[in-house]
Amino acid sequence: MIEARDRHTATLLRNGNVLVAGGGSHEGASAELYDPSNGSWTATGDMIEGRDGYTATLLSNGRVLLTGGDPADGTGPLASAELYDPRTGSWTATGSMSEVRYGHTATLLPSGKVLVAGGYGDIGPLASAELYDPESGTWIATGGMVSPRQQHTATLLLDGRVLVAGGAQLASAELYDPSSGSWTATGNMDGVRGGHTATLLRDGTVLVVGGGDGGEGSGPTSAELYDPSSGSWTETGGIIQSRGFHTATLLLDGKVLVAGGGGGGGPDLASAELYDPVSGSWSATANMDGIRLRHTATLLLDGKVLVAGGDGGTVASWGPLASAELYNPGSGS
After folding, report:
1. Tens digit of pLDDT for each residue in 258-290?
2. C-alpha–C-alpha distance, residues 46 and 43, integer Å
3. Quick one: which of 38, 81, 156, 329 has the most CB atoms within 10 Å?
4. What digits encode the pLDDT tens for the residues 288-333?
5. Domain ranges of the chain
6. Are strands 281-285 and 114-117 parallel, antiparallel or unpaired?
7. How confident is residue 74, by pLDDT bands cut at 50, 70 and 90?
8. What pLDDT was estimated at residue 215?
């Protein structure tokens, strides 16, 4: 990459390129594009505001919506939002959210609207949620969550509902119904999870992995599955290494690649492993070139996975990374 980044975002665009933006390096406002056809990075327009810990959502019209996050000057979470237009490589301001948010989630709904939920506000975790309407560029209030959350996950289910799970100090989960704009509690996970991942599998269940009370892999090595038809969780095969602030990527063959993260009481991680939904088991795969946490992993159109940035290095030279690497499921390397 051109810039070293952590807590940034990576978004697969319609043309197959990947937009990587922001993060905790320099001013946090720069953005760049990865072109898989030649493996190159090129700079694109700078964001209006430097930010990290924000969300990036590819809209139905091909633009990318950024929301909230922490500003480069550290003055506190943002309520602002902006749009990236791949045709011009430029950013424009759009309507601001009703509240400042950091560590929230953003989910593209079948209607084309974007559901933003929770996060850390002025004085603590938020239970509020709101909807972005791309046609008007404005935000609409919707029902508040059952519990305030940050560092949670939000997963669009096959029936159009959104599963929100965990967050710092929480094992609970809840469902958002776009047809009514309301939230209802659903089954609890088997333990507290923050800094975890949630992946929608082909059969419609959701795989939750890692995290814990402290986020960085301090929880058990268990993984669990949410079944929307029953609203219940069941344990599946345990991951090889406890981890948090890792990545989880659904591959074209239906398996899930989990990579890097913080190792809790142990060292931070360069290791990676694969979950097989058919057997419910995990197997080791090739390690990354180095330790990474708070990085991004993007499934490319050819089935490879682009892993970019994050925190890493050695004790003597730890910090945001400018490196990137590709995982090839065909060779497992």
Report:
1. 999 987 666 789 999 999 999 999 999 999 999
2. 9
3. 81
4. 999 999 999 999 999 999 999 999 987 677 889 999 999 999 999 9
5. 151-294
6. unpaired
7. confident
8. 46
Q: How far apart are CA 188 and CA 318, in angstroms?
A: 36
Distance, in Å, from the CA atom of 281 to the CA atom of 245, rounded to the nearest integer, reads: 21
Q: Which of 71, 82, 85 is nearest to 27 (CA)?
A: 71
For 24-68, how does the pLDDT look when each residue is reduced to its tens digit (9 = 90+)?
755 579 999 999 999 999 999 999 999 988 999 999 999 999 999
Residue 5 is given by DSSP the state B
Q: What's the rounded Cα separation, in Å, for the pair 9 and 263?
A: 22
Asked if residue 310 lies in contact with residue 325, where contact means CB atoms within 8 angstroms, the answer is no
Topology of the domain covering 151-294: Neuraminidase (2.120.10)
Cα end-to-end distance, the chain, whole Å: 20
pLDDT at residue number 78:
95
Residue 169 corresponds to which tokens in the numbers above?
Answer: 């100090």
Closest CA relative to residue 180, chosen from 247, 129, 253, 232: 129
- Closest by CA to 223, choosing from 251, 204, 196, 260, is 196
- Distance, in Å, from the CA atom of 210 to the CA atom of 243, rounded to the nearest integer, reads 5
DSSP string, 240-257: SS--BS-EEEE-TTS-EE
The token duo for 67 is: 């929301």
For residues 278 and 253, what is the distance between their CA atoms, to the nearest angstrom? 11
Contacts of 143 (CB under 8 A, 6+ apart): 129, 176, 180, 181, 182, 183
pLDDT tens-place string over residues 180-212: 999 999 999 998 998 899 999 999 999 999 987
CA distance 138 to 96: 8
